[in-house]
Every structure is written in C-alpha cells, then in structure tokens.
Amino acid sequence: MSSETAAQTSVSTHILDTSVGRPAEGVALTLSVRSGSDGTWTAHGASKTDADGRCKDLPALPEGTTHVRIEFETEAYFVSHQQAEEQQDAPRVRDSGAFFPEVAITFAVKPGEHYHVPLLLNPFGYSVYRGS
User: Fold this and answer.
1) DSSP 8-state secondary structure symbol assigned to residue 22
2) Could you tell me the pTM of the whole model?
3) Which domain does 37 fall in, by range?
4) DSSP 3-state assignment of 93?
C-alpha cells in the first residue's frame, strides 16, 4: 500500500443533540488509531465540533491503520448546556451533568475509504452509524 492510498483514508464526524434538536457545538474529541486487533492505541488527532456540530479537520489515517476510536467528551458539553435542557418537558433527574460522561466509538477501516461517523446524542443515550 502506498502512502498516497493511506492519505485517502479519512474520518469525519458530526453530533446532533437530539434533546434539543440542534447540532452539538464545542464537543471535544480525540481520534486514536491502531494496527491489528491486538495493536496499541495511539492518539492521532484531536478537535472540537463546530457551530454545525461537525468535525471535518481530523488528520488522514496513517498507513496500516485497521481500527479507529473516536472519544467524545460529552460531560463537559452537557454541563455547559444544562440551561437548554431545562427548557425541555422531560424530567432532568440525574447524578451528574450527563449519564454518559464520554462516548467511545471503535470501528474497523479499510485503506482508501472515507468514514463519516455521526453521533446522535442526548443526556441519557446515544446512537451512532456509518454515514456518507
């Protein structure tokens, strides 16, 4: 595999806060990579979601990457957005700023493909899928 092919393997993400029906702006995330199921995770990039809840500036994946993990720091986001949550009709009883203080998504990749990984998030649950 050439380094040109590896440079084409990329990841992007976006987050929709389904509790308010809006993009989740300012969520910090870390991108880690490994080669092989038994490989060691290596931090490869970090960013924050923009005003549209998107993160398009993650670096291309290194040659030999077989698995990717995106860790979303959701607790800080929900703590900073409690006022918006209080405007909803659903009860807001919980022990901390978020039931899931972080969300880690791990997925397999193949060289030369783009992976868009949307996260649908609310204070008590989340869903993720491979987007386009």
Assistant:
1) E
2) 0.84
3) 3-128
4) coil
